[in-house]
């Protein structure tokens, strides 16, 4: 059941569920959706009043999760445009020299991201495919030791972590209780420290499933400078 309250200049939409429980619970999901679970026979006016009292917390949680939403600006795929890889800027250079019919490729060389193709209109698809392959390789390479050490330190009963790379329009990463971690391939454009921060953040969900103070404390123990890398992620891909 969809409901709405107004708090100052903000409108907060929430999904209301009734269940056999004693108290009202409010959850903000990583997608910024507000879910309210209330005992049966609780009046809607009473529910809305409680949500208004918790509105500052709800807004704070939504703002926090918003920082995980990819905001990478659109790039042009023409010579001279800059593109990011692991936090560094590279200037795109479309080159049709030394080409055979099956020799289209993309490579980093010096401060350039060089695209070799006889058809300039193919530069975009070639660069995007290159990014995807790099993400599959590099993100897993960065994640593997972090995952292994986390599982050992916390003695988790999860036999293995399933890691996959998948485009997500509103999130940098996600983690299920069963140990499936998904990373957004756009992360390959961020500095290594920012990538590690997202991975650590998702791993912490294996211990604390809700975004609580205990969760934040664990995240700080795992990565003391996570705020710095979170800030860099927000700035460099904003």
TrEMBL record:
<dbReference type="InterPro" id="IPR002725">
    <property type="entry name" value="YgjP-like_metallopeptidase"/>
</dbReference>
<feature type="domain" description="YgjP-like metallopeptidase">
    <location>
        <begin position="22"/>
        <end position="235"/>
    </location>
</feature>
<dbReference type="GO" id="GO:0016787">
    <property type="term" value="F:hydrolase activity"/>
</dbReference>
<dbReference type="InterPro" id="IPR053136">
    <property type="entry name" value="UTP_pyrophosphatase-like"/>
</dbReference>
<keyword id="KW-0378">Hydrolase</keyword>
<protein>
    <submittedName>
        <fullName>Hydrolase</fullName>
    </submittedName>
</protein>
<dbReference type="Pfam" id="PF01863">
    <property type="entry name" value="YgjP-like"/>
</dbReference>
